[in-house]
Give the backbone structure.
Amino acid sequence: MSIKLKHGLWVVVADGEKALFLRNQGDVKFPKLEVVQEMEQENPATREQGSDKPGRQSNEGPRSAVEETDWHRLGKERFADDIAERLYKLAHRGEFDALVLIAPPQVLGEMRQKLHKEVGDKIEAEIPKTLTNHTVFDIENLLQAD
């Protein structure tokens, strides 16, 4: 997975509830990822959110249950929107020239749909992994591993 951690490269490590925005203050040989910003969202499991049970729908004909809303999934999608919006603002201000996105496959797909072209053009790599519970040092080492 070896990524060239050049000076100024931004790495965004995200999942459905948390995002770390990191910038390499070092260079390719001696990277030093530093936290620029953290985002967090409370997103309890669906069973702890929303209404107690799905409603029923009747339009003459047979009655059918309305599918229960997956509040947890919706929360993750909203958080992907928030991350995409933040990245757009940062890219628009010229905060980064290159970006690596690391997130679980579903979140990565969600973010990819929401990212503005200005951000998409700066993405150097996408890594479909969950690394939000790793230390910055571990993330550095994983990105450099062959």
